Amino acid sequence: MLATSTAVGCFSFFPARVLGRGGATPPSEKLNIAMIGTGGRGAVSLRNLTDHNIVALCDVDWRTESRSEFPAGKMAAQYPQAKRFDDYRIMLAEMDKSIDAVVVATADHSHAHASIAAMRMKKHVYCEKPLAHDMHEVRAMMAAAKKYNVITQTGNQGHSNYDVRSLVEWVRAGAIGSVKEVHLFEGAGRRPAPAAGKVGTVAWTGQYDFTKILSDDIPVPPEIKWDLWLGPAPTRKFNPAYLPLSWRRWLDFGTGVMGDFVCHYLDPVAWSLDLELPESIEAETDEAYNPQTNNQTYPNYSQLRCAYPARGNKPPVTVSWYLNSPARPPRPQGWKEDEKLPDESGGGMIVGSQGSILFGKVFHGSSMKSTPGLVRLYPDDLDKSFKRPDMTIPRLQAGGDLGGHWLDWVDSIKAGKQAGSHFGYGGMLSKSAVIGNIAVRNKGKILRFNAKDETIINDDDANKLFQRRYREGWNLPT
Predict the structure, then answer these.
(1) What does the alpha-carbon distance between residue 229 and residue 238 come to, in Å, rounded to a whole number?
(2) How confident is the model at residue 28, as a pLDDT?
(3) Are 296 and 278 in contact (CB under 8 A)?
């Protein structure tokens, strides 16, 4: 359903016509889009969807000033034609016939509830990564997308990046030979413990003592709808330790650094090597982190080792993660002392029998042209001698400030085909993040995973972490 006479407010429309990609989007080609989450990542989506009609804005924190660079109250002022809502359920019910598509950019713990509510009303959905908070929710989102036959996109915008697509083509063309080893990292050797600093009314040292934070009686700012922000999560007192920006480190709300980055860095690896889910995974964390006594946050740092089985004629692969870890990922053989990775703060290295491919933060930058040095072959003589293959994966036209990932979604809606990182694919990446966090919660153990029925076969307690409990009134939509 493209925008038609059901549009609201000041929008007018003309007979639909097929257009090229040059110039502004004409009224007949515009979608009516609603936002669930308007600040933060929602603001980024808004900037990349300016050619379309933003008809409704929903948020639970309407402040115009906060730690967020793009608070919802400030963003909403730029869209005076859009109707505002605090509760997305009311928005969907009231605006049903005026909405074609929905962007979900809430905290992780609300992704599944909001996305499924929109999909069951036949709305196309763009959801930020990771898709959901636990395995049960990811499965439910994948099933809903299929059941309601809607066009979906996971918010791992690097999937639409020019350089990611080049990387995939090079690996498939045998540029580095047979691959058995991958190293992925975020903040390796660089970041302080993410829990350290001023949190709420106390100085948090990162030593996992939350007594003061949890017991604080802090008035809720009038712009924050705290009960709606909690959504399906257990009831607790308000604290600025949770929002904005800080919620991801808390177990009830976020998915940690693993959830934040696995859908980005694992994407080109899984895509090029046909990886799905690991057959075993193990994790280590900072020594102070004890998951038996800490039911509040993720560790300050972690390292994971994931083993993937052989796929046809492709050998088994081991993927190692370094998340805010003081450990450094290895350098390729022959690496020069003064050489740097494409991005010292985050990226990856795919190690083959004939060389390596190194990449930086591939989720930044335009999708229609290469970013020099972001993805490169090593050693230098391989980089010089390897004949680049013909492009077999389409390059997307750039749009907005982060590339064509949003344009891929809206163009796919118009074409009636799935987008590049639809929930079937993005769900697999999100499941990998969920399994990784379960390993973190079982640090020091090797968890054996049966990918066929998606269960951990050697630890019943770990399996219980696949589904969380919701507070009353917030069951997952079906």
Answers:
(1) 10
(2) 76
(3) no
In this predicted structure, what is the pLDDT of residue 396?
84
Give the separation between CA 50 and CA 170, rounded to whole angstroms: 34
On whether the CB atoms of residues 457 and 466 are closer than 8 A, the answer is: no
Q: How much of the chain exceeds pLDDT 70, in percent? A: 89
Q: Which residue has the tokens 């750039």?
A: 398
Q: Note whether 147 and 321 are within 8 A (CB).
A: no
Determine if the peptide bond prior to 389 is cis (ω within 30°): no
Q: Is pLDDT of 327 > 90?
A: no
Pairing of strands 280-285, 446-450: antiparallel
Predicted confidence (pLDDT) per residue in 422-459, tens digit: 999 999 999 999 999 999 999 999 999 999 999 999 99
Orientation of helix 423-440 relative to helix 135-147, angle to 10°: 170
More confident residue, 8 or 331: 331
Q: Is 142 exposed, middle or buried (0-12, 13-18, 19+ CB in 10 A)?
A: buried
Crossing angle of helices 423-440 and 256-273, in 10° steps, is: 130
Q: Hey, which residues does 448 pair with through a beta bridge?
A: 280
Is the full-model pTM beyond 0.70?
yes
Cis omega (within 30 of 0) on the bond before 244? yes
Mean pLDDT computed over 409-432: 97
Q: What is the pLDDT of residue 196?
A: 53
Asked if omega into 234 is within 30° of 0 (cis), the reply is no
Distance CA(49)–CA(38), nearest Å, equals 13
Tell how far CA 132 is from the center of its chain: 9
Sign of the Cα pseudo-torsion (345, 253, 440, 205, in order): positive
Long-range contacts, 326-332 (Cβ 8 Å, 24+): 326/189, 326/301, 327/188, 327/189, 327/303, 328/188, 328/189, 329/183, 329/184, 329/185, 329/188, 330/183, 332/356, 332/358, 332/378, 332/379
In the chain, what's the furthest Cα-to-Cα distance?
A: 65
Tens-place pLDDT, residues 97-118: 999 999 999 999 999 999 999 9
User: Which of 14, 33, 272, 250 minimizes the C-alpha distance to 158?
Assistant: 272
